[in-house]
Amino acid sequence: CGNYYAWGETSPKDEYYLETFMGPWPNNITDPLPPEMDAATVNWGEGWTMPTYAEIKELKDHCAWRWTMVNGVEGYMVRSLNGNSIFLPYYEYRYDGGPIFMKQSASNPYRDAISNPFLDAYYMSKTFAPRPSWSDGNDPYILAFDKFQISNCGYDYILSASGGLVRPVFHPEE
Known about the structure:
The chain is mostly beta strands. The protein has two helices and eleven strands, in the order βαβαβββββββββ. The protein has helices at about 40-45, 55-60; strands at about 5, 50, 65-70, 75-80, 85-90, 95, 100, 120-130, 140-145, 165, 170. The strands form five sheets. Strands 3-4-5 form a three-stranded antiparallel β-sheet. β3 and β4 (about 75-80) form a beta hairpin.
């Protein structure tokens, strides 16, 4: 699945807690995340970047998604109109030192993809979303999904400190 990264951090770690969060508090940084805090740029090199909100929204809204298994790993094969594809493994995001699991209930087999903080897979963007007025800051936009649905792009209430997956985008001109 790759490494997990908290938002604005460029190295994976063993545990993801608020106390271990070393990235910038999103309300203290310009948008989007600068290259020196972009896990894709730092780890993959020049031209690679974490996707923007617009890029993950395009992936969600304008591609065909098919649940499949690749090399024994479940996830979505996402195919664009031009035939390019990317596999997004189904791995839980991490917080409090390990993956968070939430059993689906008979009354809600699909779970609310954005408001539920226990959604399984989070793929990070480098763009942050404004939080409600009662909140203490912003968190990054994410692409979130589970086995049952692909959510809208959205944010979670504690995602900045959580470990999310990164699928980099290549922009040779950057």
